[in-house]
Amino acid sequence: MAAETKQGQYQIVGVLGLFSLLTALAGSSTNLALPRIAIDLHVTSSTATWIVQVALITTTILLVMFGHLGDLLSKNFIFSAGGLLFTVGSLITGVAFDIVTMLVGRFIQAIGAAMVMANSMGIVTEHFADSNRAEALAAIGMFVSVGSISGPALGGLIMSFTSWRWIFLLNVPLGILGAFLGARVLPLPRYRWADIKKATAHANWTGQNLFTAGIILFFLSGSIFQNGLQRWVIGTLLLVSGVALTAAAFIQDNHAAKPWFAPALARNHDFLLSVILLGLAMLVNAVSNILLPFYLQSFGRMTPLASGLIMVLQDATMLLITPAAGWLADHWDRMKLTMVGLAVLVISQLGYITFPANMALWRIIPPIVLNGIGMGLFLTPNNAITMGVVPATLTGVAGSFNSFARTLGMTMGISLGSALLFIQLPGVGRITPGLGMRFMQAFATVFWVAAAISFIALIIVVWRGWRGPAKQSITPHQ
Q: What is this structure's pTM?
């Protein structure tokens, strides 16, 4: 593809960044609103976490498929259609008056988010050379950080004066604006149904169905364990069946005529290692994102606004760190930068273990800030490494698989954090201050696990650095 002008590149980053902001805004503000939504919709705290999980599970299932469809059809087309679906889902979620309608809205919203996320990195790779790609990815990362920052702060402000519903309804006019700008910046091909049918005629739907069933069973096991260990046999069967079906899906896909996940990427160890590290980091990060609202609001009795302003510190720190991380990733050793980021992430998880029962801010704030520093230093160089070792013909599916690892990590982190917490609190419907040290001990145990996982990721990235630099892009037939 011909090189883009600077103005054209800025416009592309602006459109991609706007929808990245919206998806991040929806995720972070929803986490903050969970305690209030649980009360208004008359569901337990553990059930309310499914408002977040159903969206992440849906996105996880569909990311790779939409990335491959972007390669087969058009990344711009899939991206733009996703923006519209995300807006429709936001509207349904905002007007929902029961948990079922809420979950339907989140499901539609997540389909759109998957279409957007699966093609964003591929669009960047098509329009930016490797010499300035990390800075473009960092710019989009800043939009994500702004959305994540705005979510808790704006969500807390909204809930201080009006209903939590406006957290979702706010996405509607912004989504319409994004769709309008996208139509002007990203050229859209005109497809007939026959064209789409021909392009996807031999797509591996068997593999996709196996993968869908596996992911659903895997995360359903989490809901069983969240309600205690009384039905541990059923939970274990679902967990094992889900893992087996998911593994079978990847094996079947590797032998399919038109696999969703390109065999060349399956044999690219540098690529796979980078996405595994991303998944582990996002898993750890998601644990604090899902548990902090319950710690601050439900246990600590802070207002939504106060808890939102505290939680915003993590993403505000990421916003400040990301531009520097993008510059360093283009001018310094990217692997060493990921090591530093993961080391800081380990320290932050140890800090969460020391959280007090009396809401002393001087002990609460430092781990949250360190969490933001660690993630900010890790994400951009790791993304640049990931996309730098794949050929141009596979950037769509590579970008979508990178987003898949990110979303899978987030989903597993939320499921793991919720399940570990509520397993230790059998019979507890809602978190309250009356739980006392029983809650604090359960809270600390979850973060011991998060610290261990982040330390494993650090060991992996140190080994990667010791092994040597990643090889630059492969050819599709390798």
A: 0.74
